[in-house]
Amino acid sequence: xxxxxxxxxxxxxxxxxxxxxxxxxxxxxxxxxxxxxxxxxxxxxxxxxxxxxxxxxxxxxxxxxxxxxxxxxxxxxxxxxxxxxxxxxxxxxxxxxxxxxxxxxxxxxxxxxxxxxxxxxxxxxxxxxxxxxxxxxxxxxxxxxxxxxxxxxxxxxxxxxxxxxxxxxxxxxxxxxxxxxxxxxxxxxxxxxxxxxxxxxxxxxxxxxxxxxxxxxxxxxxxxxxxxxxxxx
Length: 233
Prior knowledge:
The protein is mainly alpha-helical. It contains twelve helices and no strands. It starts with 9 loop residues before the first helix and ends in a 9-residue tail after the last helix.
């Protein structure tokens, strides 16, 4: 599928191996393949972008909550920065596409999360509030890991990203090797807390990682199908 663009410590490798099927399935999802070749319907991408903005708000909150549980100042600062990065850096992408596709901050604020999106958000919150520190890190790791690795994989497949590509900005952002340092910092902390915990705690963290990988696939799916809630009685 792809070579690893950043260092993967032993416990991260264990997590990845346990979730290899769902992690790899994202590469083959029709939303991803059509985004890469530029044939993805603009309405589906708009749907995805709005839901992604809602998800990132919760990802930011999850990082912020986890920062209150760690005691190492460097880990605390890293998590605070990660919370900020989710809102500031990626919001720039949403602003640009919002102008092209006709949505803004108010659109995002008034849109309801899909069932899959809300379930993923709740999974992250449960992991960082009720679980161990290791479980919290394991739950947030798949999102950036998948996007960064996938982005660099797609760049290798495409060879080049022409300005005329409708999703050039998205592809360029996630293929940026500058994110590799972010991932090494995240996975390094995952390893740090794995070393400090017992096997039972590690097993729960592996499960949290697996579930997040499942939700990542489900996130592509909810955008591809433009998922809606069942009609209310």
